[in-house]
Prior knowledge:
Number of domains: 3
Number of strands: 18
CATH topology of the largest domain: Jelly Rolls
Number of helices: 0
Largest sheet: 5 strands, mixed
Low-confidence stretches: none
Distance between the termini: 75 Å
Strand content: 35-45%
Mean pLDDT: 91
Order of helices and strands: EEEEEEEEEEEEEEEEEE
Strand order of the largest sheet: 1-3-8-5-6
Amino acid sequence: MIKDFNNNGVIxxxxxxxxxxxxxxxxxxxGREIEAGTYFVRVFPNSSSGNTSYGLTFNFSLKPNNxxxxxxxxxxxxxxxxxxxxxxxxxxxxxxxxxxxYRFTLPDNGEIDISLGSVTQDAFFQLIKDFNNNGVTxxxxxxxxxxxxxxxxxxxSRTIETGTYLVRVFPNSSSGNTNYELxxxxxxxPSTTIADPGNQLDAALDxxxxxxxxxxxxxxxxxxxxxxxYxxxxDTNTEVxxxxxxxxEDAFFQLIDDFNNNGVIxxxxxxxxxxxxxxxxxxxSREIESGTYFVRVFPNSSSGNTNYELRIAT
Length: 314
């Protein structure tokens, strides 16, 4: 069985997808997953002096994809902005199509579930963030990956921030071929901050002077956003209460006073800190004098991802 990849009318290296030997008075067959396209079958004797009659049979089981454009090595299937409805896509990866890439955008922070199933041979899939937008998968761009064995399924479930991402589907071996079904399900957890809290003190989100009420903020920290910094001021000596909750993975938060105003957390600048385990809450209550302060929220590990709700009150 042959695929003329470069359409030059010659059987080049890699064009023969599969071959079988058939001994006298017997039979053999080729059974494999293939993608849409044009193929060739070549029948020839085993020796230069061999002669034989033969019967050749073709049986094809249609497994149509539902992808508008073939998401091959270079053409991305752009899913656009994902909503909260389940999205499913069927296609093929294998010798004639090594990778399928899908690109999508999330309008909000939230929870995403990506599943791969209906595979007839082993496969992999990955969730990717092209941090430097260079169109290449660099170290650190792969956020998560899963192996899927033949006739089974697997999924990637994680907290994720708003932005553009890629999913790559590919076979487990250079000779592997499989159809597949890829599913996307997204639950939105919108941020309530007017802008993304910065990743360092001098880029902190300024929430202004604290009054007598509570201030609530919902946002995300994780692999794609390591720290969230908030700055606030108080015009008199007071007690501040800071609480962190609704975390899906372990996290930390800190109350900071940049005593020398150098924009760096030096020894002694951290006034208090608390650990918050997944699906729990914790708080800081402390007397402070008038001035400017910072709150830092960050995940417990380099691979951690969590949404959170931060409450600041006096």
